[in-house]
Amino acid sequence: MFVDHKFGPHLVSETPHPSLTIDGTPLNIYFSPADHIQKSLLPLINNAQSSIYFLAYSFTADPLGNAIRQRAAAGVKVAGVMETDQVRSDVGTEYAAFRKAGLDVHMDGNPGLMHHKVFIIDGQIVVMGSYNFTASAEKSNDENLIVINNPDIAAQYMKEFQRVYAVAQP
User: Fold this and answer.
1) How far is the C-alpha of 85 from the C-alpha of 135, rounded, in Å?
2) Does 23-166 carry CATH code 3.40.980.20?
């Protein structure tokens, strides 16, 4: 956020790290870079028991990619769709490493940009926001992430995942 004429890593952290419940649904809200979002996102991935589905515009964060591959190796179902232009142009994309590990990860088939940034974990937890899964999002960009713990909301996001996945290409 823009505070005292400072953006990104120069920002003085004043984020209240809110955790709240709305109509019985727990939410956690984070802002980068002040909240060091990966420190909150990694335990969610590392604790996945049955499934991790993701839609990613840009995915170059090695710690997140490594955690996903480790969960897949432990038997957790992993499937994802990544933006084609980003896969083809980004240095350091996790796409090739995911494919090499045998993960069910594809490039999107959208003629425009697939701009989602979403994880759906164990059919219960939805992680979404402007936060790209990149070092820049973690260290320098002003971005946001909301963690929603609700199976009904997760089901809605799974419908969108399935729609995007249906036209995706390896």
Assistant:
1) 18
2) no
Give the pairing type, strands 77-82 and 104-107.
parallel
* Cα–Cα distance measured from residue 25 to residue 116, given in angstroms and rounded to the nearest whole number: 22
Taking the chain (170 residues) in consecutive chunks of 10 residues, what is each chunk's mean pLDDT? Answer: 54 68 95 93 98 97 98 98 92 93 97 96 98 95 96 98 96
CB atoms within 10 A of CB 8: 16
Distance (Å) of CA 165 to CA 72, 76, 80, 159, 161: 18, 18, 8, 10, 6
Q: Could you give the CA distance from residue 159 to residue 170 in angstroms, rounded to a whole number?
A: 20
Give the dihedral sign, CA 7/116/85/38.
Answer: positive
What does the alpha-carbon distance between residue 1 and residue 166 come to, in Å, rounded to a whole number?
36
Cα-trace Rg, the chain = 16
Whether the link from the prior residue into 33 is cis, omega within 30° of 0, is: yes
